[in-house]
Amino acid sequence: MPAKPSFDPALIARGPAGQPAAFARGTTAERDAAAGIPSGWQRFRFPQSLYRYAALLATLAFIAYAVDRLNIDLERLPGILGRIATTLGQRYFPPNIEHITRADYLHSVLETMQMSYLATVLGIVLAIPLAWLASFNQTPSRRVGYGLARLIIMGCRSVHEMIWTILLVAVLGFGMLPGTLALTLFCIGFAGKLFTEAIEAIRSGPVEAIRATGGNRLQVFIFAVLPQVRVAWTGISIYTWDVVFRAATVVGFFGAGGMGWYLRESVQRIASHDVAAILLSIIIVVVAAELFSAWLRRRVSIAIA
């Protein structure tokens, strides 16, 4: 039976018998291999390792508690894909393509595009001054403007666009106006937050240079801040339109017009084949918008850079 490798520090210091000189001149890895120390050995760092394993154990325990508390039946998960395929095949296939090729439905697709575009433009125009006021390093009014702008951005962002749509439909009635306003509020919260973070990440050198020449706060914003954030803001604006367009396809379900209105009408009639066709059209339009926005971001980045 072979002898177990020894990890005696004295053995490591003097090396294997018969090779003291070579062992002393060798690298750390060579000496560890000669002494029988595994190459993948590393020190167990206490208490950092204890904290890491305790956090992992606490996370797993919380997941188990949540699953038990919410009464989630994990035994139903293995067959979920099969049940989804069966439901789609029996109730929603084949989709009624003729329903989405009608002129009135194609007009609703155009209305959805117009609603998302108008909401994005209005939201970004309003988000720019709010982002300027809400940025801690560039706000012209830290006592009043900073807190007020932060409150407006957080208020618009904390309420989901569907909730805004329900509230505005209740106040203004059905139509494109409440949907456009709801998406505008969503755009203010979404773009305003990202615009603010871009301003707070700028370099202070150009800002101090403009201030040293006697420039006021507006001139500092125009000549020192905007040149540094224009590329980021352009990408954020295009991405915001992409997100708003996806939301615009379904806000009509709550009475704001567009493609979502036809989806709601088909669901209420329990016309499953029409619903499948509308969902298919929404997926196609959203994928096309995603490809267009990605192409546009690349082109704008090249042009600005």
Strand content: under 5%
Q: Helix segment count? A: 14
Find the CATH topology of the domain at 97-304: MetI-like fold
| Intertermini distance | 70 Å
Please, what is the CATH homologous superfamily of the domain at 97-304? MetI-like
Q: What are the segments in which pLDDT stays under 50 over at least 5 consecutive residues?
A: 4-8, 10-16, 20-24
Query: Element order, helices and strands?
Result: HHHHHHHHHHHHHH
Q: Structural class, please?
A: mainly alpha
Q: Please report the first level of CATH classification, the CATH class of the domain at 97-304.
A: Mainly Alpha
In total, the number of strands is 0
Q: Please give the radius of gyration in angstroms.
A: 31 Å
Average pLDDT works out at: 79
Fraction of residues in helix: over 70%
Q: How does the major sheet shape up?
A: none
| Shape estimate | extended
Reported CATH architecture of the domain at 97-304: Orthogonal Bundle
Would you give an account of this structure?
The structure is a single chain. Residues 4-8, 10-16 and 20-24 have low confidence and may be disordered. The chain has helices spanning 9-14, 20-25, 28-35, 48-69, 80-92, 97-100, 103-134, 145-158, 161-172, 176-200, 204-212, 217-251, 259-268, 272-304. It is extended. The protein is mostly helical. The N and C termini lie far apart (70 Å). It has a domain at 97-304: Orthogonal Bundle (MetI-like fold), CATH 1.10.3720. α9 (161-172) packs antiparallel against α10 (176-200).
